[in-house]
Amino acid sequence: MSSDTAVGTEDQLVRSGVRRAGRRLVPLLILLYFVNYLDRVNIGFAGPNGMNEDLGLSATMFGVAAGVFFIGYLLLEVPSNLMLHRFGARRWIARILVTWGIIATIMAFTPNATVLIVLRFLLGVAEAGFFPGIILYLTYWFPAAQRARMTAWFMTAIPVSTALGAVVSSLIIEHGDGLFGLAGWRVMFLLEGIPAVLLAVVVWFSLTDRPAAAGWMPQAEKDALERALAAEGREVSEAGPKSVLGALKSPRVLALSWVYFGVVYGLYALGFFLPTIIKGFSAQYGTHFTTVQQGLINAIPYAVGLVAMIVWTRRSTNPTVRVAVPALVGGVAIPVALYLSNPWLAMVAVTICACGVLAALPGFWSLPTSYLTGAAAAAGIGLINSLGNMSGFVAPYVTGALSDATGNNKLGLWVVGICMVSAAVVTWLLRRTRRGAATPTK
């Protein structure tokens, strides 16, 4: 279909434009997030497979190294998102990819714990703005009715990168040991950091900032999408904060930050410590698994969670239910895993927790994007993501510190459950303020 031949009613043109944009943009965004999330959490595979021993890291120090990434994230999320809003997604995301790819690759040559912690901090600085930038970018292309579904497809990169990444990382560590004269975990950092730099070139030449600039979309679809997004933006602007400052001080934005903190706490606690927990099955249950087998077991919760994410997003339409129910189920499931009699039953409970986390995440982002637009959306989404992702520092640090103090992971995983249940409760309470959110904040 040429650029001038699309016909149909306004609604038909919007739907066909959404389908075309989804096929063109979302696969690339999934690939970008796959690499992003893998580079963020692959330290979880490096730790129990040689890195902790080589660098002399205790569980607490490993938690600091894993979590310090999010300090840099916190500092620059809002400024980075404002820069994306100003300069466009294509330029800014390409810049992010180059800087994080270089730092992720350099981690292969870290000589000691201090340098590792510094590099993890710089990796957080480099990646700041990527995820909230993509969430903001989706608001430039997809009306609210379709955005949750597109967000869910984008976020499939989390379970895919963790499931597939667990296998790939384990294979690299096991079979890459000695390559270039490096330990296996160092080879993993090297090989998994390079793709980000290569993808920056792809983004620079193929990502389109907004529908109006899409030479690959029929003019009628571009115009219909722009009109639908503009009308929706006017409605949201009347209901939510109208400025950056208004978004940053909005009580609703701060409450949503806590909800995101609680859900993501479960995600990162599992992401960073599940490989260590699985490795510990040998002492707890008398089992023995090779490195690759451990990677395959680590992949199970995320493979099942991928299906739960897609099915739940399609089935549930109520925004509160979409977030609160899976967060509650996941929060209750994780402490149960601590008291089961064999590793397979424990993995069932862990898998239910992973399903709860992953099912809640896409629905969550429909809450702030239905309330924020323009620069206020850039600031509000950046703030929610930065405060919420502080759990990425708190979760591994608290889990590691409690493990060192008690000699096991039980208390740390109880904290995971409490945080997720509290996120479900706050989400449920926020349903009462949805109508009240119609009062503008300047």
Automatic annotation (TrEMBL):
GO cellular component: plasma membrane
Membrane-spanning segments: 25-43, 55-76, 92-111, 117-140, 152-173, 185-207, 253-275, 295-313, 320-338, 344-365, 377-399, 411-430
Gene Ontology molecular function: any one: transmembrane transporter activity
CDD domains for this protein: MFS_ExuT_GudP_like
Domain Major facilitator superfamily (MFS) profile: 25-435
Keyword Ligase belongs to the record: no
PANTHER family to which the protein is assigned, alphabetical: PERMEASE-RELATED (PTHR43791), TRANSPORTER, PUTATIVE (AFU_ORTHOLOGUE AFUA_6G08340)-RELATED (PTHR43791:SF36)
Record's protein name: MFS transporter
Organism of origin: Pseudonocardia halophobica
